[in-house]
Amino acid sequence: MLFETHAHLNAKEFDEDREAVIARAKENGVDTIVNIGFNAETIPTCLELADNYDFIYAVIGWHPQDAKDMTDEHLEWIEELSRHPKVVGLGEMGLDYHWDTSPRDVQAEVFRKQIRLARKLDKPIIIHNRDAHQDVISILKEEKASEVGGIMHCFSGSWETAKLALNMNFYISFGGPLTFKNAKQPKEVAAKVPLDRLLIETDCPYLTPHPFRGKRNESGYVRYVCEEMASLHGLSYEEMAKITSDNARRLFRLES
Asked: Which sites bind a divalent metal cation 2 (predicted)?
């Protein structure tokens, strides 16, 4: 019933109980998970998970925080691996001006190269955007990202930024922060996003929703994001679960 569009189940935080975490996701109604591999270390383990579980798919790419470490050989490696039948998109890619662990010009160049690769491969892209809204939108426009579209992952921007992304063929995804009581802007934006462009996610093990805020996040908690989204749109939980699942399947071309 639930489609979790962004997880990091191969993270070290799950090394002790990964199978149990995945089992709990199923128990909570999650029937499809897209797991993200975002650098040289996490891409192989991401693909391994996709190979081991029929309901887990992979997205692979290069995170902006690691941009300084990416080489042309890495990009060729990603292109080769992206032909794996369970790789459904590229990412997460984008800009991160909060941590600034890679120079901003390097982040931008790595971002552009991955958009060009996605257009070549005709795969949607997953966007990481931290405190870089204007530059992210500009690069998406300049690199014609609308040709492949994708997801604005764990969206934290304004309605004006969301509209620009929507106009470029992107879906808007919300995670645990949507459930926080003080999340005024995310709630306002989520309520305005058209139903056919909404997605839900956890970004686990990070960004845990209420009522587990402060603890490790896991994919089963996407149900709390779905509950909040349903409330914001005046729909039932079941209706919102179906809408967001159908949207994700359409985007990732997994329609049954």
From this structure: 128, 153
